[in-house]
Amino acid sequence: MQVFTKHALAAAGLVLIASAAQAEMTGGQLKLSQSGFTDDFSVAKTNISGSVELAFGPQFGMQMDLGVNLLNFADETATNFVTHGTYKLGDSTAIGAFYGIDAVNGGSTDFYGVEAAQNFGTGGVQGYVAHAEDSGNSGTVMGISGGMVMGNGVGIGGSVDHGSFDGTSLTRYGVRGSFGLGESSKMFAELGALDTDAGSETYAKIGATYNFGENSGLMFGDRSLFNLLPGS
Questions:
Q1: Strand, coil or helix: 80
Q2: Does residue 70 have a pLDDT over 70?
Q3: Where are the beta strands (DSSP E) in 89-225?
């Protein structure tokens, strides 16, 4: 992580954005989801997000994520913006670095990290590690996720994310099932748990995605600290 500094990643992001007019859009995704704790669904979150993937030739590219989270339990609206710089090692393998900002209630948290993805057949796996910091606080977040389509549009998947912030830690893990609605859209449901120092709470989540572009989707998932609460 020491190789990548926040300023270096931000500068790389600005260079990519300045060159975006010369890039080709290769993929994108729109997502809507609702998640909450099963014992008290008033502790819930509505997520609306969109991502676009651009290519600067066969190997280099960028991805931009923009998300809005309606935090029902806090009666707040949180926003998220992330820029990824990506490098494809092959048709199905990629590595990347990203820089993002989560903002809520007048404050913001910067985070940056590295990621890798490997697609295989009708499935794939990806992982990331990131450092987050705001005024006086810092932490580390990491995660891994994967899934595959079994047939007839039915898919299964799972994910684990862990965060540690100044002595406080939390881990979210879940299993997911999905059903394709044609070539570009699908509905999904997820069941999992959030483990914290105070105990464990189960959550449920439902949502839908729409993929577009030449690749009909994205190489990397969206990144946000809000993905830990209560479901991504």
A1: strand
A2: yes
A3: 93-104, 107-120, 123-134, 137-151, 154-165, 168-181, 185-196, 199-212
